[in-house]
Design a protein that fits this description.
Elements: H1 5-12, H2 19-31, H3 38-45, H4 62-74, H5 88-107, E1 143-145, E2 154-156, H6 157-168, E3 172-175, H7 182-195, H8 203-226, H9 241-254, E4 259-264, H10 269-276, H11 281-288, E5 307-313, E6 316-322, H12 332-347, E7 355-362, H13 363-368, H14 370-378, E8 390-395, H15 405-408, E9 425-429, H16 433-450, E10 454-459, H17 477-485, H18 489-500, H19 507-521, E11 529-530, H20 559-570, H21 580-593, H22 601-614, E12 618-623, E13 638-639, E14 646-647, E15 660-664, H23 670-682, E16 686-691, H24 702-709, H25 712-716, E17 723-727, H26 742-748, E18 755-757, H27 762-774, E19 781-785, H28 799-804, E20 810-811, E21 824-828, H29 832-843, E22 848-853, E23 855-857, H30 863-868, E24 875-883, H31 889-898, E25 906-911, H32 922-937
Parallel strand pairs: 4-6, 4-7, 7-8, 8-10, 9-10, 12-15, 12-16, 16-17, 17-19, 18-19, 21-22, 21-24, 24-25
Antiparallel strand pairs: 1-2, 3-9, 5-6, 5-11, 13-14, 18-23, 20-22
């Protein structure tokens, strides 16, 4: 068939003499696009982004049209040659195209449609402006090399831009160009670009997504109708969280994950409990109605509760544990990391593949609370890594109550904090559940491949206020007008599937009806839920339940075990070159093992660990400088001065011993202590210790102490044997290095929730640590540990005290005083005892007895029997180094008084009340210390 004149012209390309003809054709196009041949029309269409109000194409310069067709002729065979083609203009554009591709990868997220409400508009600047790269629509049909872009080596510019738009600017915004590892970036690029960031889902999978959305919406509506106005921190608006979590479990199980530990705050928690983990609705309803019986403890509100269940997946059963958490939101993040670490070590899983941590954040909390940064910082640290966590942000764009993003952060995204560890971040529109599933798959696979954290920012909205009693329109009128008119995610997706022919018109409604029926029945609604299964990694907490702190516990050692362990902890390989002071310390330990010199604190503490390891219990000790010991006393890690190699005597005590881990922690208190708490609540057969560099540094972890350590058992029934070593003692080092704030811990003590001990001798710390592990009672142990006593000439012990002794909660007078002559009894704890003892001996006072209380809580009631033996005592003194409003005086005074004879009265000797813990002047410290000792011994009255 003969070609038309227009077709012939198009085939021959534009020549200078054809300009007039082109003008004529273009004018026809502008008047009526359908009046010209399709071959011309398609080329002209490429230049017009929009039409006018009459549907006609908007105008464009004719010179641009001419240049465009001229380029077609010039570039027809360029790609067959190299950049030495001689056309510098094209070569420059080729370079710019590669820059444009990189710009899409780096900045495409700023152009993506992420907000379901369409309110959030990002500043896009000109990152993707073609003019910035010397390109225009005239270059659309020109083929350019694509560099590292997935697919063909060369593509027309129009196709390149179309694919990049689909990949980076649709409903997924990917941030990964901040990652320095080129392999990780390439991995993400290929996953995104090979699929154009869109999953290939079978129809039955799409129906499962719709089912998850129907359940998420169904629960919230049911609760709203059944318990109107009740707080539930609804998930509505963030419904896509549920198909996301289901995908994590199912895909994770297929990849070999055996356990998932989930941490989250309030929003959506009830949905997770019922629709993901299989909590029976009838149990939840009972909690709403206030009918749930609590056998012991205070219990907690329903949106703080944890839960555990087993879920069936194609790869086998996955155990899912939802952590209990308080209202302090992000504090649960390091707690679950510690729990995961314990589970990994229990499984001996060095590949970090069998246990997956998943943390769900709020948009204001992830960026506003410092513990998030601390947790990210620990993510790859030796003693704390868990092989990467999946972080999910329920980004409702409001924060907690009335905040706007500009009020809650100084960064573009709430997830920018994750860039500190170069974690990839995937922002996704919550109203596109298929995109949500896609980024979930991507995140899981990245974590499994690279063993590092990954973040999913679920951009959504909150249909109600912060809680259901809150009125959000008062402060967010424009947003909530949009919310009021906006269809639910389930409705949007159901309509999409109906258009695709995946479901018929009645399918979505039938899912909702079926779910309501299940709610009415109150039974489990999770189809792949399984009854909890026992296996080799299941921890039996039964032996630790319903026990008592006074249960008989033998902490002594057999002579053979003592001799063997003492030799092992003091033996150093011949090839190890030690630093001079450390070498002297190890030589002294050999002498202590042989009974040549008394045992100091470091030896007794190390012996405690050695014996616990030898008995089959793991020991985990972490803190700042814990390997060496802040005060140079421990040296559990020995460093070769020539090679830098390390040797741990405690990992060489016996052939079948348990592992010993000592970690010099990151410079954090809150996250590290929370991590150790999570570990301890998961592993009862491990002695888990957190040591503060100075005791007052625990201030930085107060939320962990208040909301987990002191009250976790009472609120949630969570047993925990965590030990806190808090250096405490007044040495003239100023306000910030004296007090571990003993008074705060004593104030938190009630109902035998924890122990507070102040050991004063090496043998005491030996038996105290052994008791903590051997005794089946699991409660936190807070230790006011010493500083100067670590090398005090009077604070020593001998082998017999370790071999045959026990932890004494009260230590009676040690000098051979005639009890009938004693008229004054001084009660005390800790270092001040030795100041009192030396001064009494110097003054030759034989009528003053000094009794040490080594455990201040649970308070030793038999102190009364000890005091009763001093029948002529009339004066009773409590002596402490701390100011009067601090220390044990106000918290324990009633216990002291109850231990005295009927007509006895306890008096105070110590520093005056003070706003600061201690003076910063050494001379004043000495003066104060002398005065309180003299007052306690009655010397100031003589």
């Amino acid at each position: 068939m003969e070609k038309t004149l227009q077709e012939q012209f198009a085939a021959s390309f534009l020549t200078g003499g054809s300009a007039a003809y082109l003008e004529e054709i273009y004018e026809q196009y502008l008047d009526d696009p359908s009046s010209i041949d399709e071959s011309w029309k398609s080329k002209f269409d490429a230049f017009h982004e929009s039409s006018d109000s009459n549907g006609q194409p908007a105008d464009i310069a004719h010179s641009d049209i001419q240049n465009y067709f001229r380029q077609i002729g010039l570039n027809k065979h360029r790609l067959a040659s190299t950049s030495s083609s001689g056309d510098k203009s094209f070569d420059a554009k080729q370079v710019n195209v590669l820059e444009l591709i990189q710009a899409y990868r780096a900045h495409g997220h700023q152009y993506a449609s992420l907000d379901p409400l369409g309110i959030w508009k990002q500043a896009t600047i000109d990152h993707l402006d073609l003019a910035k790269y010397g390109l225009s629509k005239l270059d659309f049909d020109t083929e350019f090399r694509t560099g590292s872009m997935y697919g063909a080596v060369a593509k027309p510019l129009k196709q390149i831009i179309s694919e990049l738009d689909s990949t980076y600017c649709r409903t997924i915004g990917s941030e990964f160009m901040h990652i320095s590892d080129p392999g990780q970036k390439q991995w993400i690029q290929e996953r995104l670009e090979s699929s154009l960031a869109k999953p290939d889902l079978a129809n039955d999978v799409k129906k499962q997504i719709l089912s998850a959305l129907s359940a998420a919406e169904g629960l919230e509506k049911y609760l709203h109708n059944k318990f109107p106005g009740a707080k539930r921190f609804s998930l509505e608006g963030g419904d896509s969280l549920m198909p996301m979590l289901e995908e994590i479990i199912q895909r994770g199980g297929s990849a070999g994950v055996k356990e998932i530990v989930l941490g989250m705050a309030h929003r959506g928690r009830l949905n997770v409990l019922v629709n993901l983990m299989g909590k029976k609705p009838e149990e939840l309803f009972a909690e709403f109605a206030g009918k749930k019986n609590i056998e012991s403890g205070s219990g907690d509100v329903k949106y703080h509760q944890g839960f555990s269940s087993d879920i069936n997946t194609p790869g086998g059963v996955v155990h899912v544990a939802l952590a209990f958490n308080p209202s302090h939101l992000e504090i649960v993040s390091p707690v679950i990391e510690g729990s995961v670490r314990a589970r990994l070590e229990r499984r001996k899983d060095d590949s970090f593949s069998q246990v997956l941590p998943v943390v769900i954040h709020g948009d204001a909390a992830i960026t506003g609370q410092g513990v998030v940064m601390e947790t990210f910082n620990m993510s790859q640290a030796r003693g704390y890594t868990t092989g990467g966590s999946v972080h999910i942000v329920i980004n409702n764009q409001v924060g907690f109550t009335t905040s706007k993003p500009q009020d809650t952060r100084s960064t573009t995204y709430c997830t920018d904090v994750a860039k500190m560890i170069e974690a990839p971040i995937f922002h996704v529109n919550g109203d596109d559940p298929e995109a949500v599933v896609f980024v979930t798959q991507l995140a899981l696979d990245f974590r499994a491949t690279y063993k590092k954290d990954v973040v999913i920012d679920l951009v959504c909205y909150r249909r109600h206020g912060h809680n259901e009693a809150d009125e959000p329109r008062a402060t967010q009128p424009l947003m909530y007008e949009k919310v009021r008119k906006h269809p639910t995610t389930r409705k949007v997706y159901a309509e999409q599937l109906a258009k695709e022919g995946v479901i018929d018109d009645g399918y979505a409604n039938s899912l909702s009806s079926e779910y309501r029926d299940k709610m009415d029945e109150g039974k489990n609604v999770v189809s792949n839920w399984l009854p909890m299964q026992q296996h080799e990694f299941t921890v039996d907490w039964t032996p630790y339940a319903n026990t008592d702190w006074q249960m008989p516990t033998v902490t002594s050692l057999a002579q053979e075990q003592f001799d063997r362990l003492a030799k092992q902890i003091s033996t150093v390989p011949d090839e190890l070159t030690l630093q001079t002071q450390v070498k002297r310390l190890m030589t002294d330990r050999q002498k202590m093992a042989n009974g040549e010199i008394p045992m100091d604190w470091g030896f007794a503490e190390t012996m405690a660990y050695a014996s616990i390891l030898d008995d089959g219990y793991r020991v985990r000790l972490s803190g700042q400088d814990s390997g060496r010991g802040t005060f140079f006393h421990r040296h559990s890690v020995l460093h070769d001065q020539k090679t830098g190699d390390t040797y741990l005597p405690l990992n060489n005590v016996s052939e079948n011993q348990a592992p010993f881990d000592v970690i010099d922690s990151v410079l954090s208190e809150e996250a590290v202590l929370a991590f150790e708490y999570g570990y301890s609540t998961t592993e009862p057969r491990s002695l888990v210790i957190w040591e503060a560099q100075f005791g007052d540094f625990a201030n930085g972890a107060q939320v962990v102490i208040d909301q987990f350590i002191s009250s976790g058992e009472h609120k949630w029934g969570r047993l925990c044997g965590l030990v806190m070593l808090l250096p405490h003692g007044y040495e003239g080092q100023g306000p910030e290095h004296s007090s571990a704030r003993l008074e705060r811990f004593l104030q938190l003590c009630a109902e035998h929730n924890m122990q507070v001990c102040v050991p004063s001798t090496p043998s005491q710390v030996f038996h105290m640590l052994r008791r903590q592990m051997i005794r089946k009672w699991r409660a936190p142990l807070v230790v006011m540990s010493p500083k100067s006593l670590l090398r005090h000439r009077l604070a020593t012990s001998n082998a017999d005290e370790l071999i045959s002794g026990k932890f004494e909660t009260v230590i009676d007078e040690i000098d051979n005083l005639n009890k009938d002559k004693v008229t004054r009894i001084v009660l005390c704890s800790g270092k001040v005892y030795f100041d009192l003892l030396e001064k009494r001996r110097a003054e030759e006072l034989d009528d003053v007895a000094i009794i040490r209380i080594e455990q201040l809580y649970p308070f030793p009631k038999h102190l009364k029997d000890v005091i009763a033996e001093y029948k002529n005592a009339k004066e009773f003194i409590w002596c402490q180094e701390e100011p009067k409003n601090q220390g044990a005086w106000y918290s324990s005074r009633h216990n002291f008084q109850a231990s005295l004879p009927k007509d006895g009265y306890i008096e105070y000797a110590g520093r005056s009340a003070s706003a600061a813990p201690a003076t910063g002047h050494a001379s004043k410290h000495v003066e104060q210390q002398r005065a309180l000792v003299d007052k306690a011994l009655g010397l100031n009255a003589k």
